[in-house]
Amino acid sequence: MFRLATQIEAILYLKGKPVSLAELAEYAKVDRTNVEEALIELINDYAHRDSALEVVETKGGYCLQLRDSYQELVHTLIPVDLGLGALRTLAAIALKAPLTQSELVEVRGSGAYQHVQELLEQGFIRRRRKPDGRSYWLQVTDKFHQYFQVDQLPQQLKLQFPAITQPQESEPNPDEELSQNLPEEL
To answer: What angle in degrees, to the nearest 10, is found between the helix axes of 112-122 and 101-108?
Structure first.
């Protein structure tokens, strides 16, 4: 039988994103108290290892991630080849998401179609057809948040730019519509 801390390490590795205490308890088939104890043990183990990885608590839960001191290596080994236009399009999607592709084209011009394709290929955004079939909803992916290290972007934007992140009262909230039409795991 595996040590619980080792089992949690495997769960965090396999999920590849923050996992809540409740989810960890469910996956490991133990209670939250045991998960908390095992997490403390695992965090302590990583703190005393000479390792490129660490276990951290984020707003979304616990995750296994690369230490900050190794981020430059990520950029060296996995360089993003995006032009200035594509980066600006990505910024617009990150700031206003979810937004429709047609809204994006209004803001960024017709070159946004090529940028969207490039960003999809690199895994920084996802696109889902609207129920009426006339356009797509665009959102950034977990890869965007990990690569650009902006885990707290939505909260920071709400504080700094409340008008950008709040839907207009006269318009339907695309977050609700999008969440109803997207599968949970993308």
So the answer is: 120
Residues 6 or more apart in contact with residue 89 via CB below 8 angstroms: 104, 108, 111, 112, 115, 116, 119
- Report the phi/psi class of residue 152: left, alpha or beta, with left for phi > 0 and alpha for psi in -120 to 50: alpha
Structure tokens at 46: 């990583």
pTM for the whole thing?
0.47
One-letter amino acid at 110 equals: S
Q: 165: which 2 tokens?
A: 């992140």
Q: Who's near 15: CB < 8 A, 6+ residues apart?
A: 63
Interval 86-139: pLDDT, tens: 888 998 898 887 889 999 998 888 889 999 999 998 888 999 988 887 889 999
Q: 């390792």: which residue's tokens?
A: 51
Q: How far is CA 137 from the centre of its chain?
A: 16
> What tokens does 99 get?
């937004």
